[in-house]
Amino acid sequence: MESFTGIHYGGVSLHYVDSNSELRVFTLACQAYDYETQQSKNIRAFVERILDEFGLSLSDDVYIVTDNENKMTYAFKNNVQRIGCTGHYLNKILEHGFKKRTSIVKNYNHYTNVQDKTKTKDSKKLVNPIPKTHIDPLDEIFDKPVVKGKLVKPASSKTELDLYLWDETKPEKETNILNYWKLNQTQYPILAQLAKQILCIPATNMATERLFSYTGNTITNRN
């Protein structure tokens, strides 16, 4: 909501990978939210109306990134793949962390007092208030290779995914991951197509959030 006018705004941006494996980002709208309430059904209708103007629509093959408020969760619960904004998750973690600070300090002081009570006057410990648990070594947790130090070459019956997992070629850290899949789409056609669908999904919805800030600073009279 714009604090000076009381008007709510909504924004929609489009992210996709084109036929040349280039990431494309377009802002489709940043406009006043003209529904009476912010019920989930109205939010859904607001977004669908914007998409319809461009001949687009939501479906099970489309991913949408929103914040994690309940109204957004329910608005995009069906006929679309909703992903929570990572920035919103981090913000909530920090928010709850600072709120819980007093409780953490209290628990720490309580633990320290318990430790002190387990010692005699000559500082010898009588008991350990926190029992030690046995942790198996990692070698016991993970599967061991059939032949130590050797990798079994993939058979011709291996799937495309199997061949990719067995491929010892590793891209460099500086490699453009979209370009990597473009160069390997002949060898891994299915995985390359999946990569285009997944890698265009933004981690956050900051594209529209930044747009709100820019436009607010531009058109709002703050005098």
Automatic annotation (TrEMBL):
<dbReference type="GO" id="GO:0005634">
    <property type="term" value="C:nucleus"/>
</dbReference>
<keyword id="KW-0539">Nucleus</keyword>
<keyword id="KW-0479">Metal-binding</keyword>
<dbReference type="InterPro" id="IPR008906">
    <property type="entry name" value="HATC_C_dom"/>
</dbReference>
<feature type="domain" description="HAT C-terminal dimerisation">
    <location>
        <begin position="160"/>
        <end position="222"/>
    </location>
</feature>
<dbReference type="InterPro" id="IPR052035">
    <property type="entry name" value="ZnF_BED_domain_contain"/>
</dbReference>
<dbReference type="GO" id="GO:0008270">
    <property type="term" value="F:zinc ion binding"/>
</dbReference>
<keyword id="KW-0863">Zinc-finger</keyword>
<dbReference type="GO" id="GO:0046983">
    <property type="term" value="F:protein dimerization activity"/>
</dbReference>
<dbReference type="InterPro" id="IPR012337">
    <property type="entry name" value="RNaseH-like_sf"/>
</dbReference>
<protein>
    <recommendedName>
        <fullName>HAT C-terminal dimerisation domain-containing protein</fullName>
    </recommendedName>
</protein>
<keyword id="KW-0862">Zinc</keyword>
<dbReference type="Pfam" id="PF05699">
    <property type="entry name" value="Dimer_Tnp_hAT"/>
</dbReference>
